[in-house]
What does this fold into?
Amino acid sequence: MSCQGCESSTIEEARDIVSAVGSTRDKVIPLLQEIQKRHGYLPEDMIEAVSKEIGVPSSEIYGVATFYSQFRSTPMGEHLIKVCKGTACHVSGAEVLISSLSDELNVGEGATTGDGVFTLDSVACLGCCSLAPVVMIDEKVYGKLTPSKIRKVVKGYSSD
It folds into this structure.
């Protein structure tokens, strides 16, 4: 099977992924997970190539990918910023932090900055309620934040 518009390296990688994970319809989620593990998101050409390899319409694969929040259709930034929206953080100003970060980075929630440095996301809870409001950048947690504090933290990452 071939993938119109796909480069041979994409087709080869799709075959490699399918060979490692499996080619049945019940393997769509693990296949998507493997693609995202390798690329950090789900490139359209990879979904098309895997679709051809396993004989499942790409529309069905996209349906699965868009249903689950674990899958990304765009590349992630070098640094992932997660703003906690749990009850304690919500009450303590999570929305103000999101707004401040969005203004500072010139990016909306769930998006990546044009330079590819930051992805801004929100999560239901980071489990650090006593530190509310909380933001996690990569694997580091920052608590008791204000808009000015989070802007300073982010500037520290920008100068890496």
About this structure: Residues 80 and 139 are 9 Å apart (CA to CA). The first strand starts at residue 79 and ends at 84. DSSP finds seven helices and five strands in the chain.
